Amino acid sequence: MNLGFLFQAPSIAPPMPKPKILWIDGVGSYAMCDSDEVSIGQAFPGNDVDLAIRGDLSRRACIIGRKGEDHLVQAYQSMTLDGQPLQRPAILRSGCILRIADRIELLYTRPTVLSGTARLELVSNHRWQPVLTAAILLGDSCIIGPTPDAHVVCPPPRGIDWAGRFVWFRQADGWICKGIDCPGLIAGQTPISAPFTLETGLRVQSEVASWTLTEG
Length: 216
Fold this sequence. Notes:
By secondary structure, the protein is mainly beta. The chain has strands at residues 20-24, 28-33, 37-42, 51-54, 62-67, 70-75, 79-81, 84-85, 90-91, 96-100, 104-109, 118-122, 127-129, 134-137, 141-145, 152-153, 165-171, 174-180, 186-187, 190-191, 196-197, 203-205, 211-214.
């Protein structure tokens, strides 16, 4: 299957949105990647990649592209997918391991088949720059909650039994969020019961989880 056309940019391409950072109190920070293509490369000043890794890799090691419900990887340096050398763009499957330059390992996970969103985690002894828990490759929805099928797993505070979730839905002009079984939900200064628009800088609080979405 020839998938190379997915990564052939036009001579003048519009700028892609940079990942925003989701900060969840007591849980971690996540790069929310809302672009058709996400570049990965070495962390150093002036290197304009979407996801930067502190380690010995190229300034642009690979690109992960979104095609429908699938993600594909195009390698620009030595890389393997589940131990097999990558010589052309390849589809990523949930649970696969990308290994860059024989040392940096990334785990790709699709927690639920009901969403095209995926999670990308560093599983080797390396770090993202800035420090992240994981990167989220956004499809048309995203789940934040305490169960394994969530894209962002968010355990409740100790002593609280929570089986709900926050669900993000893509719309033509942005994202909306719906809290399901999230008691005491406040967006900004306003108590919320209906879906609300996600905005950069908005502080979302509840009895089970609190978070803020910021510019990267």
